[in-house]
Specification:
The protein has 259 residues and is an alpha/beta fold. Helix content is 39%, strand content 20%. Strand 1, helix 3 and strand 2 form a beta-alpha-beta unit. Bound molecules: N~6~-D-ornithyl-L-lysine (0TF).
């Protein structure tokens, strides 16, 4: 995944509300209800400690404040540490955090200090976006297309295969496709088959990955990818329902997965 920019996180609340209303319309459930069913637990009174990390490209100006907004919107208490990095880690634990959230350029993790559960954003994001795609009320069949088999895409493909969906995937990397076929039993998407999907989970950092040949009219595309893989004109022409949001959905999945 590409690194977020402060602009991506502008109007996070409005971006989330738009996605939330699409999720409810196309699946019949709210995001938090989906997470409750998925992980079998509800959030309690966990306190979330959020640590700014300066490594690599450094602080993204509104990243930790966005995480705090998400935790609070989910009804949790949260705080951003005054210090960064290791001093921030110490401060979060000293000040009573139950769950730590922190990210460098390679990994974004949630760690529950009470039960030891640990999750990456890649895994939690793959699971929730694929789950949303798989819950499409108007799906024509159990066939679902996964575009991109990197860390997010693979986690979603695995989740879908375990749920018994008929998973097809495409990725320019032959090794990724072979691994997914061997380990998960998923099929390679071939455009010559002229198969059109009503459920699509897209997980690439590229634009224009979704072509007209792949999708059915009024399909659902669920994607955390920035930029969006669905060209606007294709989305309009096929009247696609699109679930895409930069941070809220993935972080909600992370928090539910570690409680
Ligand atoms: O930008 C990213 C990830 C986020 C994935 C969300 N679905 N693509 N990671 C970099 C985060 C860096 C945060 C920074 N170190 C800070 O402000 O603490």
């Amino acid at each position: 995944m590409a690194l977020l920019t402060p602009e991506d996180l502008d109007n996070l609340s409005a971006q989330f509300e738009e996605s939330e209303s699409t999720i409810e319309r196309v699946t019949g459930s709210k995001l938090t209800d989906i997470c409750k069913e998925l992980y079998g637990k509800d959030l309690g009174s966990e306190k979330v400690g959020i640590i700014p990390i300066t490594a690599g490209n450094g602080i993204i100006s509104n990243f930790t404040s966005s995480l705090l907004f998400i935790a609070q919107r989910l009804g949790l208490e949260g705080f951003i540490t005054q210090h960064t990095d290791v001093a921030g880690y110490y401060e979060a634990i000293r000040d009573g955090a139950d769950i730590l959230l922190m990210a460098d350029d390679h990994l974004f993790i949630a760690h529950n200090l009470r039960n030891g559960k640990l999750v990456t954003n890649h895994e939690a994001t793959g699971i929730i976006y694929s789950e949303i795609a798989s819950r499409f009320k108007d799906a024509a069949s159990s066939e679902i297309l996964v575009i991109g088999l990197g860390r997010v895409g693979y986690a979603g493909a695995k989740h879908l295969a375990e749920k018994g969906f008929d998973v097809y995937a495409c990725d320019p990397n032959r090794d990724f496709l072979d691994k997914a076929a061997d380990e998960l039993g998923i099929k390679e998407y071939c455009k010559e088959d002229r198969k059109k999907f009503s459920m699509v989970f897209e997980a690439t950092p590229n634009a224009n990955t979704i072509t007209e040949g792949m999708i059915a009219e009024r399909c659902l595309v669920s994607t955390p990818g920035i930029p969006c893989g669905l060209p606007q004109e294709v989305g309009r022409k096929y009247r696609v329902d699109l679930v895409m949001e930069p941070l809220f959905i993935g972080v909600t999945s992370m928090l539910y997965s570690v409680i």
